[in-house]
Amino acid sequence: MEVFLHLVPAVFISFLQVMLSPVFWVVVLLVGFLHHRQAKMKESLFGAQDYMPWHNTVMSLFFGLVGGLVGSFIMVFFGISLTGAGIGYLWLVAVALLLINPRYLCFSYAGGLISIASILFGFPEVDVPQLMGLVAVLHMIEALLIFVSGHMGAVPIYTRNYRGQLVGGFNLQRFWPLPIIALTVIAQSSYSGSWFNMPDWWPLVKPAGDMENLMFLLLPVLAALGYSDVAITNSPQEKSRHSALLLAVYSISLLGLSIAASHYRQLSLIPALFAPVAHEFTIVLGQNRELKGKPIYIHPPKGIMVLETVRGSIGSQLGLDTRDIILTINGMEVNNKFQALEAMAVNGWWTEMEYRDSRTGEIRQGFIRKKVGEPLGVIFVPGPGDVANVKFNPENSFLSRIWPPKKDYQQSAP
To answer: Number of helices (H) and strands (E), helices first, in the chain?
Structure first.
C-alpha cells in the first residue's frame, strides 16, 4: 500500500489541473443554471421564492469536488483505464438515448449497448471490462453524492399515484460538476519520465493485451452527474438514502463483474448485460416504491397538513415543519387552505395557532406578531380544489414493456 501513498500527491496535482480548467467552471455555471430553473419551478408552482440557487450551486460544487476526489482514488486503486473504453462512442449513444427518452441518458444503458454490440458484432471495438468498470465507478460516486446531498433543495409537488390518488411529495433533483482522475495506457518505450513500481496484483481491472510493456499515466478528465427522483412515501432524506443504497449495491456488483471479466474475457457479456438490466430494475423498484406505496403527504381527516414552510415566513417562525397538522388559526378550526386564509384575515396584527407536531404527536400552540396582510407562508398537502402539477409515467421503462402492468396507468413524463 506504500506505493499508493506516494501516488497521492500526483493525484492531487492532476485534480487541481482539472479545477483550474475554464471548461470546469463552464460546467459549474451550467449547474447553477439548472438550480435556477428549480427555483423558477417552485415559484411557478406555489409562488414561493425561498429557493436559493447560489447556495445549492455552492453545495453541489463542494460535494462534486469531494466525490470526484474519492472517485479518482477508486479509479487509480482499481486501475481503470480510459484507453479502449470508447468514451466517444459512449457519449454518442447516450445522446441518442436522450432523444428516445430523457430518462435513458445514463452511461449504464449506453455502455451496455456498446459492450453488447462490441462482443456480438465486433464494432465498436472497446475493452468491455474497462468500460463497465468506468460505468461502475461513476455510479459508485453518484451513490455517495446522493446519500450525502440528494435530498437538498427538494421542491414540493402535487401528483397522482398509480391509484389516481392526489398526493403531495417532493421532486428531488441534484447536479454535480465532477473533476476526476482516470488512467490511460501507453507503451513504456514511448515514455521517458519516472514511474512507480506497482504491486503484482495491480490493476484489478486488467486491460487487454500484454501488460509487461504497458504503462499507466494519470489523465485528468471532467464529468458531470445528475440525480432525479420523487419522494411520496418517504421524506426526501429517507428516499435519497434508499436510492443511494440501491445504486451502491448495483455499482459494487458491476465493478466485481468487470474485474472478473478482465481476468476471464469469456465472461465479458455478463457485465455488459448486467449494466442496463440491473440499472433499469433499480429504477423500476424505486418508482414502484413511491407510486405504489402508502403516501404520507395526504389530506388528513381533520385539520390541514403542512407539506413545506417557506423560509423566513410566519409558518417557519411558529416552528411548523413537514407533516405537522394545523388544527386552528386564531381560534377558528381549519380543514382546508381556504379556511386557513379566512382565519388569517381575522387578526391583521398577530396570528395564534394550534397544531399537532408530527415528530412527537403533541398538540402545540404558537403566537406571533405579523404585518397586515402577511401570508402564513405554508405550502399545504393537496386538498379539495387542488390538481396535480407534476405527472410521472412509471410504466415507461424497458422492463415494463416486457412485462406490462395489469392496470392501465397513462400519465406523461414531467
So the answer is: 11, 9
